Amino acid sequence: MVCRSRFVDDPNLSVAERDARRQVHGLRSFYHHLLVFAMVNSGLAAINFVVSPGRLWFYWPLLGWGVWLVLHAFATFARGRWLGAEWEEQKVRQLMAGKSVE
Predict the structure, then answer these.
(1) Structural domains counted in the chain
(2) Which structural domain range is residue 86 located in?
(3) pLDDT tens digits, residue range 80-94?
C-alpha cells in the first residue's frame, strides 16, 4: 500500500501518470494475491494428502478463496471496461446518435 499513497497524493504527477501507477499497483496486488493463493492451497493439499488421504477437504478452502480471487481478477482487469466510465460514455454517444438533440 505504500506505493499507492506515495503516488496518488503527489501533486507533481500528471493525472495520466497517477492513473497508470494506480493500475500497476492493482496488478501487483493481484499477482501477489495469486501467488499467496497458489502457495497456501498447495500447502493445504500437501497436508491433506499426508494426514488424511482418504478424506479430501483441501478443495473447500480452494473453492472459497478461488471465488474471491476471481472477483479480484475481475476488478483488476475489467476495471472501467464493464459498466465503467468508458461504457457510460459509449452508451451516451449511442443514445444521442439515435435521437436528435434539441
Answers:
(1) 1
(2) 2-98
(3) 667 777 778 888 888
Would you call 82 helix, strand, or coil by DSSP?
A: coil
* Residue 18 CB coordination number (10 Å): 15
* CA distances for 100 relative to 54, 89, 91, 96, angstroms: 69, 17, 15, 7
C-alpha distances in angstroms, 75 versus 41, 64, 84, 100? 22, 17, 11, 36
Low-confidence ranges of the chain (pLDDT < 70): 1-9, 80-81, 100-102
Judged on CB neighbours under 10 Å (0-12, 13-18, 19+), 21 is middle
Q: How far is CA 24 from CA 1, 17, 45, 54, 100, in A?
A: 12, 10, 31, 43, 41
DSSP state of 11: T
